[in-house]
Amino acid sequence: MTASGYPPARWRHLGVGLTGLVAACAAQNGLPFLTVSLRAEGLTLPQAGLLVSAPTAGLVCTLLLWGALADRYGERLVLTAGLAIAAGALTGAALADGVVATGLWLLLAGGGSASVHAASGRLVLGWFPPEQRGLAMGIRQAGQPLGVGLAGLLLPRLAGDGPGGPLALLAAGCAAAAVLVGLLLRDPARPPRTAGAVRPASPYRSPVLWRVHAASTLLVVPQFAVAGLAFDWLVREGGWSVAGAGTLLAASQAGGVAARLGAGAWSDRVGSRLGPLRQVAAAVAVVVGLLALVAVLTPAVLGPGAAAAAVALAAVATVSPNGVAFTSVAERAGSAWAGRALGAHNTAQNLAAALTVPLAALLADGAPGYPAAFALGAVAAGAAVAVVPGRAAEVPAPPLAAVR
């Protein structure tokens, strides 16, 4: 089936799903921009790292559940409910008095917003033909750098009186996205099931999907080592102001968007998800390794300009593999398993993210310092190169939804 069999409405659904992902990712991944504010209130860097990772820990607890619900009840209901829960929890976090209460509310916010990761990928699978899925998933996955970029522009500027104002803004974003999803989104058609037909076999009988999960999980380490510490490093050791560092990281997310779109379009053109994934992983290892080297020398030797260039390049490179990996997972899992497979994929990724930020913060706050934290990410990316399955494991993806 070619793209002519899929109506133009697929782009509207992609846009609505992207909006939900932007709002969710701003809440899940934008909290590192509040580390300076949190530390000004007396928290250590490891304590702030635990708060920053709380939404990610919430994601880990609920992704598989949201994926199963999306497979059974559809994307619209799951997205609306999850974003509404996130909006309420972020409001609670904004009003909370005390670190423990704030952390618990952030945990719940992550649990609710996890619905976006489990369900919005199914929209791409159902609404788009195979020859457009890499690009479409790249657009969908651009929600992460876009959300982080918006957070970088807005949150540091609102955090002068503490984190309450920024958290309220994040709550409003999730609430607005829930309303848009409820009004504009429709579930894609699913392949008809014949009475008495055998249920689709589990895609986990093959090691390929397990290896894609593992490689993507390893690639989360450099992504979150950079995302979690770059802002603090630029301000404390790189010679940048709070507003300047936030603006730099926000601007670098535009490059992250382009990188995800480019990787997705590249995978469509070459007819492979795994080959581009392996090559991008190698590039991430090199770029993050360079950032670790710059962190050893800056600012005494190289100065703030080199710090900015290294961080921007790493911020772009580390987000680029996600769309291709998600497309590979969705296509291999098929319509019957896509929600659960994407939920499992995100669970592994976010478990790694929840562990990476506090661990990297401990390294950065101790004797090893920021260079060791960034080097950890480079080593993990190098390991991912070896874990990505060979191209021989790849099979052409058939269309997975009926003509609309």
From TrEMBL:
Location in or out of the cell: Cell membrane
Annotated protein name in UniProt: Sugar phosphate permease
A Pfam family: MFS_1
Lineage: Bacteria, Bacillati, Actinomycetota, Actinomycetes, Geodermatophilales
Transmembrane segments: 50-70, 77-96, 167-185, 280-302, 308-330
Main location: membrane
Alphabetized PANTHER family for the sequence: BLL3282 PROTEIN
Domain annotation Major facilitator superfamily (MFS) profile: ranges: 1-396
